[in-house]
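User: Please fill in residues for this 520-position structure.
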């Protein structure tokens, strides 16, 4: 923690040199935590920003107990009133957009506009959740029995556990907590150990709203490792729903553990997203989309473009254009406005990238651009790389995996049917795109024969989704949906109600169950 700009940023966000790692959400809700210390280092230069005393198992129990009793009060508050609280949270987040965005840049290494964009996403979802609080609609059905009425209604679930990845340290909390908050639940937020300060800042920003509405215990934070906090959360029967965002291997563990107690999981896991480029595509637009998709956030988005499936007739032309655009990318300190690509999250990510490139070349790939490590003056502790483009085949084992780094595999095809087979032939199913001017190609891509992903775009890249739609993916991406549309339903329990307003008791399906003889 060095220059005065950073010192005053941390002060404005209430981050001290040493911070407790658990709170029940109110201004004075911070616990005197007793776990092990965790130092948050900036990926920009590898230097420490501040320290967190993590929550111990005992601290976790204290927060979870508080959350359970807070839930029983909160669930009785009318949903539109909860919506007003969420709206207020949206307002305070908007007021702190610049500061919180900068902290995301400092702690996660995103460029400034992406850090700010993440906070804007939180503000947008708050608006969505506020409206939703008046639209938690159930249906009515016509009963088959005379003088009966049927309807379904939605009740809050209880405690929702929110486990998040380092690359969206703020927005993913809001997709879950604000929508689920409108639904009437209480929350336990366990952020990534790489980005604990962003989570602390969010808690500090919303704390005055928590106090004003007396909802201490609804938006809780517990920072800790998987032994003290992660695994106990997964096994905790007080938490009916665990929402987990992260790698597929983490998701497998979450799914197994939560299922073994018949809990519900909402999984948002890795992607292996591709753009198909048809011969009639606007190549300038397609290469811009590939550039943002593959290089934006240094290739560290779940929706990052990892594969370009390009028609062989236009491959040389597309490739030249893309490489020229790659050469114009400014790589460096994400705190500087001109930077378009910042560092990888840590040195381990750099090693994983180098290993993946080596494997791709060993499996038959050809390096077309980049892939080198960069040493930047004054930022020697950060992990900076040149994004890589590798000509490859879809079936290479390394192409089948998600490497969380800016590596783009270029794969050629000769007709649309083949492109679709290649596109779907990976274990993951998050985001997908096609660039084409043909209605036939567009509609084929969107048909049952087309993309098997949760997100399918036409003439738009794979990353940068809006909050209004349901977000998530199929296959190894985990099947979860968050944010817009009717994603709220996962945070509630459905109840079917039947009311008999007649004077008889007819049974469904015409079943008769009445003694025929006169009663003795
Ligand atoms: P990660 O799997 O290493 O960690 C994710 C979270 O899971 C962290 O909070 C971590 O502490 C927690 N965790 C790990 N083991 C746990 C356990 N046993 N019990 C409880 N919690 C546990 O992922 P990461 O490196 O932080 O993030 C990158 C990954 O996340 C990529 O695979 C990316 O695609 C994925 N991601 C997916 C989405 C999506 O919406 N699909 C969004 C963002 C990131």
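Assistant: Residues filled in for all 520 positions:
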């Amino acid at each position: 923690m060095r220059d005065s700009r950073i010192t005053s940023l941390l002060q404005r966000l209430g981050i001290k040199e040493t911070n407790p790692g658990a709170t029940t959400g109110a201004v004075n809700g911070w616990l005197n935590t007793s776990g092990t210390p965790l130092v948050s280092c900036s990926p920009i230069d590898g230097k420490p920003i501040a320290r967190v005393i993590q929550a111990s198992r005992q601290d976790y129990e204290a927060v979870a107990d508080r959350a359970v009793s807070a839930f029983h009060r909160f669930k009785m508050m009318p949903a539109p009133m909860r919506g007003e609280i969420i709206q207020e949270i949206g307002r305070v987040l908007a007021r702190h957009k610049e500061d919180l965005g900068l902290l995301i840049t400092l702690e996660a290494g995103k460029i400034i506009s992406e850090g700010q964009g993440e906070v804007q996403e939180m503000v947008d979802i708050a608006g969505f959740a506020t409206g939703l609080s008046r639209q938690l609609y159930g249906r009515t059905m016509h009963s088959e029995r005379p003088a009966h009425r049927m309807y379904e209604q939605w009740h809050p679930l209880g405690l929702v556990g929110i486990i998040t990845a380092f690359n969206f340290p703020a927005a993913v909390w809001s997709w879950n907590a604000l929508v689920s908050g409108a639904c009437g639940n209480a929350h336990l937020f366990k952020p990534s150990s790489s980005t604990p300060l962003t989570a602390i800042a969010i808690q500090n920003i919303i704390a005055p709203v928590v106090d004003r509405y007396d909802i201490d215990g609804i938006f809780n934070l517990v920072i800790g490792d998987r032994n003290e906090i992660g695994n106990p959360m997964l096994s905790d029967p007080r938490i009916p729903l665990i929402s987990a965002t992260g790698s597929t291997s983490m998701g497998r563990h979450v799914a197994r553990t939560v299922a073994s107690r018949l809990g519900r999981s909402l999984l948002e896991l890795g992607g292996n997203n591709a753009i198909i480029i048809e011969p009639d595509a606007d190549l300038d637009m397609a290469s811009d989309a590939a550039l943002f998709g593959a290089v934006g956030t240094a290739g560290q988005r779940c929706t990052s473009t990892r594969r370009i499936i390009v028609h062989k007739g236009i491959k040389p032309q597309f490739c030249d254009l893309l490489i020229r655009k790659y050469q114009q990318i400014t790589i460096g300190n994400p705190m500087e406005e001109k930077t378009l690509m910042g560092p990888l999250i840590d040195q381990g990510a750099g090693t994983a990238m180098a290993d993946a490139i080596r494997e791709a070349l060993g499996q038959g790939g050809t390096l077309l651009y980049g892939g080198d490590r960069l040493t930047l003056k004054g930022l020697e502790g950060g992990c900076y790389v040149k994004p890589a483009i590798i000509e490859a085949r879809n079936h290479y084992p390394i192409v089948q995996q998600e490497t969380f780094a800016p590596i783009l595999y270029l794969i050629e095809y000769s007709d649309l049917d083949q492109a679709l087979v290649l596109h779907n032939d990976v274990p993951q199913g998050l985001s997908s795109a096609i660039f084409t001017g043909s209605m036939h190609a567009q509609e084929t891509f969107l048909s049952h024969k087309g993309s098997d992903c949760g997100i399918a775009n036409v003439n738009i890249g794979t990353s940068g989704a809006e909050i209004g739609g349901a977000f998530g993916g199929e296959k190894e991406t985990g099947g979860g949906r968050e944010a817009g549309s009717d994603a709220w339903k996962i945070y509630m329990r459905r109840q079917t109600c039947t009311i008999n307003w007649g004077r008889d008791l007819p049974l469904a399906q015409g079943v008769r169950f009445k003694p025929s003889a006169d009663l003795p």
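For context: The chain has two domains: 4-269, 273-475.
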